[in-house]
Amino acid sequence: MAEIIQEEKGKGGKRKTKKHPPHIDMTPMVDLMCLLITFFMLTTAFSKAKIMEIVLPEKLKDPNQEAPKISASRTLNIILGPEGKIFTYPGSVKPEDYNNLPPLNLTDFSATGIRQMLLERNRALFKKIDDFNQQVISGKLEISQDSLATSIRRLKSDDDTGPIVLIKAYKEANYGNFVDILDEMNICGIARYTFVDIAWYEEKMVENAMSSLSTPATSSN
Amino acid sequence: MPKIKLPTKQPRIDMTPMVDTFCVVLTFLMLTTQMRQPEPATVDTPFSISETPTPDFNTMTFLLSPEGQVFMNFDNGPDTLLKFRPKILAEMGRRYGIEFNEKQLREFEKFPSSIGVPIMQMQDFLNAKDNTSRKAFQTGIPLDSADNQLAMWIQYARTVNPNINALIKGDSKTPFPVVKKVLDILQDLNVNRFNLITSLEAAKINLEEIQQ
């Protein structure tokens, strides 16, 4: 590549090819190519962004339509607070308790925080999924990646002991918290979770909890 | 005893193989590259364990900046002949009584990144010569209830391309009320399935951890 056989005119007009073709200095070309390669390598987006799917329940447009009933004993409410705080409370608040709101549990996004809490409540299902995964990894079960996902989905839909998690966001939460909590649902293998609007009494509960946090003497947990 | 005569010429390195390799690498990179599009707002996506890659086609991406602005992007579809982008813009123009000419539609088709221009300024935006003067128009799509242009964009995007998926790309610090508003608008239009764009981060837990 890139070598030119130069012909020289000899004496007496006799054409004579030179034995050693002259070298072309390729250093500038190499320099230029180095530069271009560096440019392309830096501008190329090699790793594609990933997506996380979430399906929200349909909005009730007809005012006479009633929201589906869920059992209060399995319900776990998670409220995303400001600065990465998470508030949780089990069950639901009945209208007669509006003047006597239940206290909120404060936790955070660490492994010993919300994750441990979710795993404890979801142990049965998580163990099933984990066993299944282990069997596939160790080669006891030979199935394709697609049917693995389907089987896990079936395990999740058959689950009737794990928590039903209702995620709510206080107005000072940010998008990162929202993604983190959904991610936590995936990590812990929670079968049923959804995102719902925060109710007025829950906002009040968060405000109560925040004010009790700011006064250090009366830190209730 | 004759002295050993050192060659006076400098030793030459034959760079031909190096040039060959460079050529191959360069060609590969040039053919596979997809330029990173400069977005109108810098957004650091949050991390998740999800491993599903972003789809290439049939997407409408909502870019939510930390300041609370909303930008939107569409793709042209799996076949560039489908020309989804100019079609959506033409529909929008018809709705707001603005006639976009051929050149403006073509500019819109080629514009590489997200768009956050109120529809009334869209013509000025598309007529602008360079990207720096265009940047001033990128103020975010209006989405308050009085002038909900975002809802219109979504509606026409879905009319033009019924298979379109909603992708949400937000910064970790985007305030939640903005996200909530976009989700509400989408849900009002019966879009209940969303894809949140995240970066991959491995997280591992084991059973022993929870059985303590």
State the low-pLDDT regions of chain A, or none.
217-221
- Estimate the global geometry of chain A from the Cα principal axes: elongated
Summed up, the helix count of chain A is: 6
Distance between the first and last residues' Cα of chain A: 77 Å
Into which percent range does the helicity of residues of chain A fall? 25-40%
Rg from alpha-carbon coordinates of chain A: 32 Å
Number of strands of chain A: 8
Structure classification of chain A: alpha/beta
Q: What sort of overall outline of chain B do the alpha carbons produce when their principal axes are compared?
A: elongated
Radius of gyration of chain B: 25 Å
End-to-end separation of chain B? 88 Å
Order of helices and strands of chain A: EEHEEEEHHHEHEH
Largest sheet data of chain B: 5 strands, mixed
3D structure, described in words:
The complex is a heterodimer of chains A (221) and B (212). Chain A is an alpha/beta fold and 221 residues long. In chain A, helix 2 crosses helix 5 and helix 3 packs antiparallel against helix 4 (145-158). The termini of chain A are far apart. Chain A has helices at 27-43, 111-121, 123-138, 145-158, 175-188, 200-214, and strands at residues 7-9, 15-17, 50-55, 75-80, 86-90, 105-107, 164-169, 192-195. In chain A, 39% of the residues lie in helices and 16% in strands. Chain A is elongated and about 110 Å long. Chain B has helices at residues 16-32, 84-96, 102-110, 122-127, 131-135, 149-160, 176-188, 207-210; strands spanning 47-48, 52-53, 59-64, 70-74, 165-170, 193-200. In chain B, strands 1-6-5-3-4 form a five-stranded mixed beta sheet, with helices on one face. In chain B, helix 2 crosses helix 3 (102-110). Chain B is elongated and about 105 Å long. In chain B, 30% of the residues are buried. Strand 3 of chain A pairs antiparallel with strand 2 of chain B.
